[in-house]
C-alpha cells in the first residue's frame, strides 16, 4: 500500500496527489455539515418535511449542470490557465458560504438566505468536482503511466474515508457543538484546499488559443448489439445503412468546416474566440449525446431516478420525532451506509460485472423494493412484535440499501465511461452525472409533493406507510423501460 502511494507521488507529484485526495475527502466529509443542515431546517426553521426537502432539492441543483463548468473551464482560460483559477473560484464559493452561515445567525435562521448560501456552496463543490476530474484525466493522459488509472481508485478511497469520518464526527458535533460552530469548523477544509491550490503548477496556454473539440462518429464507438461485439470487416452492411452513415458524416463534416471557416483569425477579439470555442464544444457534445447508443441508456438511468419519489427527508423526521433516534446514532447509520457502499463496490467488481446489465438492473430494483419494505415494517412497528430494535432496522436497512444501490450505480459509471467518445470524455461524463443528479433532484420534488398530498407533516405520520408503499410500487417502473439498455451489454468494457 505504501509502495503504491509512493509510486503515485513519484508519477504525478506530491502536491497534485494531495490536492486530489483533499478535494475528494472534503466531498465525502460534507456529510458532517449536511447532518447539521438537516437539523437546522427541522428544529430551528421549523419547516415541514416537504418544505425541508424542497429547500434541499433546490440547494443541490448546481450538481445537475456540471457540464457547464467543464465547458467553460475548457474554453475560457483565466490568466492563461484552465483549471487552477476555476478551482480557486469554486473553493472560495464554498469557503465564504460556510463561513457566513457559521458567523451570521440571522442568515442561517432565514429560510431563503440559508437556501441561497447552500446553493452557492453546492455550486462551488460541483465546480471543484468537475475541475479536479478534468485535472485527473489530463494528468493520466500526460503521464501515460501504468498507475494513471489508480488515481480514480485513490479518489474513491479518500471520498469514502471522508464520508465515514464526516458521519461519525457529525453526530458527535451536533450533540456537543453549537450549529454555527459546526459550519465554521467545516470551513477549515476549504481553507486548506484554497492554500493547497497555490502549490499546484499548471502550464499556461496562449491567450489566443482555444479548445477545438473533435468530431464524433458513433460507429467508431459502438457497433452491433452489445459492447463486446465487433462487426466483421467482411460483413455486408444492411441495405441503406452505409448510405445513411456516409451522408450523416458528410453533412456533419460540412457543418464543422463551415464553423471553422467562420472562426476569427488569430488577431480577432478574445471574447469572439471564446464564443466560437464554446459553440464548437456545445455542438460536439450535442452530436455525441444525440446518438441512440448513448441517449437510450442515459434515458433509462434518468427514468430510473425520476420515477421513484424520494422520501428520505420525511423518514429523517420520523426517525427523530417518533423513534427519538439520537444524532450520534444517525451519524453511525450513515457510516454503515458508506461501508455498505464500499462492500457493494467490492461485490460488484468481484462477482457481478460479467452479468448482463438488463438482468443485473432488474435484480437490483427487485431487491431495492424489498429493502424499502423494511421501512414499512419500521413505520408499522412490525419489528417490535419480533423483538427487533428500531436501531437494528435502521442500521441494516441503511447498509443494505446503499450496497444494492451500488450494484446499479457501478454499471452506470462503467457504461458511461465506455460510451464516451475520445476527446470529450470529461465533459460528456459530467453530462451523464448531471442527468443522474437532475433525476435525483426531480425525485426529491416528487417526494416532497407526495408528502404534501398525503398530509405527512411534522407530528403527523399516519400516511407515511402508504407513501412508502407507493415508493415500493414505483421501484418496478424502470424495469419496464430496460429495453433502452443494449441487450448484450455487461459491466465490462472489453
Automatic annotation (TrEMBL):
Its Gene Ontology cellular component terms are: membrane
Question: What is the protein's membrane topology class?
Answer: Multi-pass membrane protein
**InterPro entries, per database record:** BT1, FBT, MFS_trans_sf
Keyword annotations for this protein, in alphabetical order, are: Membrane, Transmembrane, Transmembrane helix, Transport
Query: Where mainly located?
Result: membrane
Per UniProt, subcellular location reads as: Membrane
Q: Which Pfam families match?
A: BT1
Q: Which residue spans traverse the membrane?
A: 84-101, 113-132, 153-174, 180-200, 330-348, 466-485
**Signal peptide as annotated in the record:** none
Q: Which family does it belong to?
A: Belongs to the major facilitator superfamily. Phosphate:H(+) symporter (TC 2.A.1.9) family.
What name is this protein filed under?
Biopterin transport-related protein BT1
